Amino acid sequence: MLEVCNLSFSYGEVGLFQNLSFSLNSGQVRVILGPSGSGKTTLLHLLAGLLHIQQGDIRWLGQSIRGQNEETLAQRRLRFTGLVFQHHYLQAELTALENILVPGYLAGAVDVAWGRELLHRIGLLERAHLRPNALSGGERQRIAVARALYNRPKLLLADEPTGSLDRRNAERIWALMLSLAQDLGTAVIVATHDEHLVQGLPELRLA
Ligand SMILES: Nc1ncnc2c1ncn2[C@@H]1O[C@H](COP(=O)(O)OP(=O)(O)OP(=O)(O)O)[C@@H](O)[C@H]1O
């Protein structure tokens, strides 16, 4: 499903990682750990096809993303990946439900019933009509997770998804993200500093 082959990346003279290889099947989880500046965000951006591959290759469903034109890649990305960041990046002028539907609009397939089902699964159906500024930080992040999974992506990429939340909310979002992804057969790659939260999960450690 995802294959990473001999991936190396540097910013100028500064090498971040070298000859990184791993693969992931549907529904598998991998945690990227490493100190600040080790390249966790950079690796996630490469996996999402948002950064130019310098050396090595990344394959989505057996097909390389290296050197693909931006338009084709953007279309593939919409279906293949969902992204969650530390900040929710919800659209302030849209309601909770409308925010969840955004990936559907972009992919040309909006299913309001599925959006409401996702809202139900994250426990926020009764807040469907509210805008982000009327929601708590944890609620906004739950919506960001649902939005990322709307197109039933093969791979969910999450960069410090619980980094701005308190412990209780962090644990809740974490459990929710994994169980929703598992239900959809979506593989998950999470970069985090929070080793407590991810104990026991398969990891990839950057130096
Ligand atoms: N566009 C860029 N140009 C030059 N250097 C960059 C650029 N983006 C990031 N870097 C550097 O690359 C290194 C890795 O950055 P990255 O954000 O991938 O690390 P990280 O492991 O996610 O860090 P953190 O845990 O602090 O978020 C850092 O030293 C950073 O300053």
Automatic annotation (TrEMBL):
Highest taxon above the source species: Bacteria
Pfam families in the cross-refs: ABC_tran
Domain named ABC transporter: residues: 2-207
UniProt entry tagged with the keyword Transferase: no
PROSITE patterns (UniProt xref): ABC_TRANSPORTER_1 (PS00211), ABC_TRANSPORTER_2 (PS50893)
Membrane-spanning intervals of the chain: none
Molecular-function GO term, any one: ATP binding
Keywords: ATP-binding, Nucleotide-binding
Gene Ontology CC annotations of this record: plasma membrane
Family note: Belongs to the ABC transporter superfamily.
Name of the featured protein: ABC transporter related protein
